[in-house]
Amino acid sequence: MDDYEIVIENCNSIDTANIGVKKGCLNIKFGPNGLGKSTIAKAIVSQARDDGTLADLVPFKSRGKADAAQPKVDGIGDISSALVFDEAYVNLFAFQQDEVVKNSFDIFIKTPEYDTAMADIEKLFDGIKKAFADRPEIEQTTKDLKDLRDAFGKPNKDGSIAKSSKVLKAFGSGNKIDNIPDALMPFEMFVKSANPSKWIGWQIKGKEFLELGDTCPYCATELPKPEQKETALAVAKEYDATAISHLNNLKEVIERLGKYFSDGCQENLAKITKAKTELTAPQKSFLSDLKNSIEALIQQLDGLRTISFFSLRDVDEIDKKMPLFKIDLGMIDKLDSDQTRAVTDPINAQLDKLIEQVGNLKGQINKHKAKIKKTIEENQDSINGFLKSAGYKYSVQIISEPDSYKMKLIHEDLSEFVDSASAHLSYGEKNAFALVLFMHQVISEDPDIVILDDPISSFDKNKKFAIIHQLFRRKGSLRDRTTLMLTHDIEPAIDVVKGMAHKFKDPKPSATFLSCRQGEVKETLITSDDIRTFAKICKDILSENIDDVIKAIYLRRHYEILDNVGLEYNLLASLFKGRAVPTLATATENRDMTAQEKTDAETKIKTLIPSFAYDALVQQVGDDEVMKAKFLGTDVGYEKIQLFRIIRGKHQDDIISKFINESYHIENEYVMQLNPHKFESVPEYVVEECSRLLQDA
What we know:
Blueprint: E1 4-11, E2 14-21, E3 26-30, H1 37-49, E4 72-74, E5 82-85, H2 87-92, H3 104-108, H4 112-123, H5 126-133, H6 137-151, H7 166-171, H8 188-191, H9 196-205, H10 207-210, H11 226-238, H12 241-257, H13 263-273, H14 281-305, H15 309-312, H16 318-321, H17 338-356, H18 358-389, E6 394-401, E7 404-411, E8 417-418, H19 421-424, H20 427-445, E9 449-453, H21 461-472, E10 483-487, H22 491-499, E11 510-517, E12 520-525, E13 531-533, H23 534-542, H24 548-561, H25 567-576, E14 583-585, E15 590-592, H26 595-606, H27 614-622, H28 624-633, H29 637-648, H30 654-664, E16 672-674, H31 684-696
Parallel strand pairs: 2-12, 3-10, 3-11, 5-9, 9-10
Antiparallel strand pairs: 1-2, 1-4, 6-7, 7-8, 11-12, 13-16, 14-15
Helix pairs in contact: 4-18, 5-17, 6-12, 6-14, 9-12, 13-14, 18-21, 23-24, 24-25, 25-26, 25-27, 28-29, 29-30, 29-31
């Protein structure tokens, strides 16, 4: 298979970049900050997705210019999909209230194999599903049954219907819509209107104004007779707007459901809904029984409508469970009617056919459960293994939900699941979780290329290796996938190319160094031999034909690494400070060197730099023009900033000072590193700023 030779042009600060990507393996691109690594990622992703966002990368220098060259990416070949892990992904990562990550079911369980198995199981339920589909009125009937059931409310402790229920509020004191009190017959037209509760509510609101005098508050006419006023006031006494609303709504529901009730049930319901007086104990008992019958039918209809793998996965003996799904109207005789049987008989018939295949059903469900269990265990072990090796006190557990699965978060000091993970996880923990879960998302979505934009720089060394190992070495990882890791952290390259190279084989990762000058990004292959200790790098550089001051810079660093801060180190330190008389600074003294000490130090340095002469070199260090010439004479950024530091020391630009000073001190160097003569690690803007400041001096 051919690898990719990607050419990126006119994207943000990049004029041109040539990036090689090996198919089916990890490609590490190491380079300093500010080089344009994120732009490289965005450009490749924009071109792969072909979503029009490539135009967003137009360089500022080209904006508003009609003839300016546009962003362009060539060489991505068959790459048409990409997933990117970057800071934006972490920030948008959806830690949910009750699960570690949104859609954990889709990421960890719902594989193509899962979908195939689920489809095969669902085919066995097609007959029952069709029985429901052929009778669309079942949906409205079920809704009406639920409305009527809900009207009974929560029962009293003895099982009787509560007075606060909609049913008793509507019918408990008699039906005063059909049985209007004689005193209110003048209002019959309003009471028996389509929406009597609205009129009753309006009427009751005027009650307090009726009590103010003998003038009608509605029409402002006089009420000459006391009985006329009493009649108007009686509406509030006899009627409750809410109860009337319940009564009307329930009457409509009962009328729609009437054909599903047995003849005897319909007769009893008619007596109750048309009763003139308070309901009797037997009538209330009848209603309680009716509620139980309705509940039973609803449960069976819902159970059959939603029958699936999920409703049967926790059933130990499916063959014994299946007959219990059958709707037996003989046991709920209040709903035993021809219309009800017209609904339930086809469903029962299809259930009988399914029962004939129960052995096949049972086998497929158990097989599917076993695969899901294995998938869950593998995912849990993978993530928890990483969390443990990285030193985190968290673990995850994937648990079953009514119609799905969810990943829950556990802390070793807490016996319960951790709710709202985002409120408890630190930034580093969120980043680690997001990165490992991103890996599983990649496995789930299977993109053509995976891009990791500076994914692990914020972690300590132990966690960095744990993450790299998790991402690229474990079973079910990003191994064998075309992956581009852009980073300013050399440690991943050290681990996969040299330190732990024996663990990263088949396929062997590729590591290259990115550098940028004048808008052109180039890459240089990093081999195992390129990753060396500073001692070896120093030895190589001292053997080259270069300036003695530059050699002295490397040698001083070499002594510092070895913690050899004796005479030789102090002589070189004095040289860079331009001291005609070198000094000796130790933990116990700070004084000028004696002539003999200077000679002894110079002699030892000459074994490594034969032409070293302190007096001659200190004169060069003290001459700014000579030092500027040395600065211009080297193309190595590391040497330029060390020479600049000697010439100028601290200056007003805090950012540049910080970079120079940190690159100068050993505590900010890696034990293993790249030779600066081959790999330009100093950002271009730092070198340019040093050059500008020297020119202005």
